[in-house]
Amino acid sequence: MAVNEPAPPAAPPRHLSIVPPPAPDERLHARVLTSSEEVAALRPDWDALVERCAASAFLSGTFFIAWLEEMGAGSAPFVVAVEEADGRLRGICPWARRGALAFSVPGRFRVAGELLAAPGDLETVWRIGLRAALRRRRVRAVVVPWLPAGPQVEAATAACQELRLAHRALARYRRWLQPLAGTFDEYHSGLSTRRRRALRNGRNKLEREGEVVFRDVAYDDALPTLRAFFARQWDPRLRMDVIWLDSAEGSAIDRRVLERFAHEVVLLEVGGRAVAGAVTVSCGDYRTFLYLVRDPDVSAASPGETLNLELIRRAYADGVRVFDHMGEGGRKDWQGVAPTQGYELVVTRRGPLGAALLAARGAQVARSERGLVD
Length: 374
Hints:
By secondary structure, the chain is an alpha+beta fold. Helices cover about 40% and strands about 25% of the residues. The protein has an eleven-stranded mixed β-sheet with strand order 2-5-6-8-15-9-14-13-12-11-10, sandwiched between helices. Strands 1-3-4-7 form a four-stranded antiparallel β-sheet, sandwiched between helices.
């Protein structure tokens, strides 16, 4: 090399060169929060963003912190906050990290795996969040369960392609989102004749047993009844991770979310005796069906269906835009609620290790769908 010839630039660290750096003109930037104190400091702005976006309460900082404190042993925060230069919050990747895996907390423990951002920011926030996560040496993969089809999957896939990341969207679940257009009477008349007849017959059977009353109660007052119904209604072997009604830690999380967000706890009583109960939580005009349980001894009269119809009526009356019925369970097809395909998104760096991770997870999901593994 000649004396005056400039030295070649040093090669960037290998783990950073795999994921492209930010574009020079990108107006938003990532801030990765890895401590409980950082997350707690962000919570007011995080919750305010949930309300601005009218998103699920389970995408909130309140839920994330409650889960971290009650059930997060072995996991550390790995929240990617996407901000403007002046610090204004524009998006959140509500993730935690366990070993080399970053995962969506609300997607793993509630049916709300989506990223939090305004619709126009989705692809940008996905791109910034995934780049920030996978440019870190210790994170080898990001897993987002319960990601609904539509804008979220499209934005995530576009971001992965732009960043040249290896990824797979594995079709796994059904997500039941009910847009509430028109009026309750229009919704009810749109149900099939068979469905309306079944609802009417169920209500008549209940009324023959006694006065039918929908009673609003406090969560703690209803909890013993809800737990008793849940324990009798569900086979323990079939209980999903997203159901923690009979867990002290889960109830503590629910209690903290309900303290922060508008909610209703309703018992259906017949002749003064509770036969079904439900909990919903709302953020703006977005309402989530948290629980609906019933007394299995009176299932012939369909108390759960009667209570569900009352909650849909209330949602229309309250101006709710979307009623999120979450995941599997119940006869949701009978309610006129169309399922949305749900995906598990797995993202990793390109290369032999990334390909092996995607292949292994894909095979595990395929076996799970055939009932060979949990």
